[in-house]
Structure formats: structure tokens, C-alpha cells
Amino acid sequence: MESRSQSKTSKDIQAWLVAQVAAELRIDPLEIDVDKPLTRCGLDSMAAVVLAGEMEIWLGRSLPPDLLEEYPSIIALSRHLASEHQPSSSSPEAGLAPDNSNSLARHVDFQSGRLERVFSKLIVFLSRFLIRLHVEGKENFPGAGPFILAANHLHVMDPVLIYPLLPKGTAFLVAEDMRKKWPIIEWIMRQLGQAIYVARGEADRQAISRAVGLLRAGGRLAMAPEGKVSRTGGLLQGRTGIAYLATQAGVPVLPVVAFGQERAGEFWKRLRRVPVQIRVGSLVQLPAGKAGAKELEAYTEMVMVAMTQLLPQQYRGVYAQATEKEQSCGSVIAPAS
Fold first, then answer.
1. How many domains does the chain have?
2. pTM to 2 decimal places
3. Is there a domain that residue 157 lies in?
4. Domain span including residue 36
5. Are residues 13 and 143 in the same domain?
6. Phi-psi region for residue 113, left (φ > 0), alpha (ψ -120 to 50) or beta?
7. CA distances from residue 329 to 322, 323, 325 in whole angstroms, order as listed
8. How far is CA 311 from CA 3, 65, 285, 331, in A?
């Protein structure tokens, strides 16, 4: 395996990285600036973890978890990997860092017990005055067992909207920069229960390991596959992180959508409750185990199409045509047993 990694030149590695990043971002490889940090190219943290895992397979050796932090650009990374021939110590699982509780402390916030219950009741109380909520498909929530809740993201208050529907102890996957930019987000997340903070644009293996570990231990995780609030009102391209977590942990995905909340300001200015509709779909079971980049893209598409089918046409965004094709050709989504 070592000889295989030695055969890769800096140009080989650079070309491979450019092709992989361009495929993930769905842009022309010629648009990739190899001197620019990947964090500024639009690569999110879970995509970076997937990239690191693919790179380990391609090079034939393990890589240190902080590699993309030390060598953030494609040119710096390719030069380093071409010059370094000694394999790193193997990790228990490619693409994931060991679950060290001390090093993971910055990624996870816990809040449970009485304060969580009080905050939950407060949310329900305030919602009655601010929101006219209608929920469909609540019976699709699993009675037991781990799962990932995949929700669309139209407003910063989305976690508050879905929180009353969630099983107790469900964790939220939150971008690290959000709590720095909006301190109120961190406070709200602490009151809602558990938050796993993931650094956007880095191969944040510690946070991802924590999320996978939580799911394997029987926990539940809520996240937005789009990775950010949609400014268009329609679904954005889903990131492969949702598929990575589901396949690594071997858990189903529960598609949930909410719409109407993007008009909250318009209604509240007139002292009226904003009408919001939440729809819960059927569980989507993805194949468990290791998956390559193309497989993860296909699995992500399955999850996003399942979400799209719950939305009115005007909210379907980039998946509008994909949904029409699914309906005409027959669904490929495999419901969880």
C-alpha cells in the first residue's frame, strides 16, 4: 500500500483533488482555484470528511484527522501528500477520528432535565400566539430506535418549529459559525437539549465521529441537508453529509418539511399568527456501510426527493424536475422496514 501512495506525484494528487472538489460542488474544474482554501470554495465539513475518506482509499493509506486544517488549499495539500510517504497510524475507521471525550467537548452541548422541559412548554405556549401550526404525518415518527431527521431550511426558527415533535433527547447538528455569529442560536440550542457543532468547510472528523457515535448508540439526530437557509424559498442542493452519517451509522432517514415560516415577519408586523405547515414523510432506509462519493450523491438525491415530494411545487427548488421524473418513472426510495 505504501508503494501505491509513493507513485502519486504532486500533479497527480492535484488533478484528483480538483476533479473531486469540482464534482462535489458541481462546477467546472477550470473554476477551481488551487491556491484558495477549500473553506472558501464552498466545501462543507461533511463533504470534506467524505473527501478525506476517498483520498485515503485512493492513496492507499490513512491520513491524520487535521490534515485539511494544516494544508487548507489543494496546492498545499497535494505537495504535502506527494512529499510524505510514511503511512499515518491507522484509525479504527477510515474517515472518522477516535471518539475522545476530552477533544470532543467543544463540539457538543448538553442540556437536559427540568430546564429542557420548561423551555419545551414555553415554546408550545408562545407558538400558540405566534404561529398557526398544522402537522401532517406525525404518526410516521418511529416509536423507538435511532434515526436522522432531515428537514428543509427556510428560516432561523426552523429548529424551534420542529422541536415539539421530536423524541426527547434528539440532538441538533449545527454549524459552528452560527453560534459565533448569532449568540442567541447557541442559547436556544442549549435549551432545546443537545447540539453537535460542526466546523463548516473543514474535515471536522471529531464532530462527525460524535454524530455517528450518537446514532450508533441509539440516539436521534436532526439536521438540514441543504446546510444553510434557503434565500430562494425553494430546496437547495443537498449535501452528502446526510447520506454519509446514515450509511456509517446504519440508521434510516425521516424526511420532514415545513413551509410558511419564511413569511413570519410579514404576518407578525400585522400582529397576526403566521400559518405554518409541517409534513412528515415515511422513513428512507439507505444501504449501511462504506459508500463512495458517487453512491453518497445518489443516496442524498433519494433523501432530497423524498423531502421534495412533501412540498408544494413552489418550494421544490432545484429538485422540481427530479420529483416529476420520479413520479413518472416510479419511486426508487426504499422505505425502512
1. 2
2. 0.69
3. yes
4. 2-83
5. no
6. left
7. 11, 10, 6
8. 51, 38, 20, 16
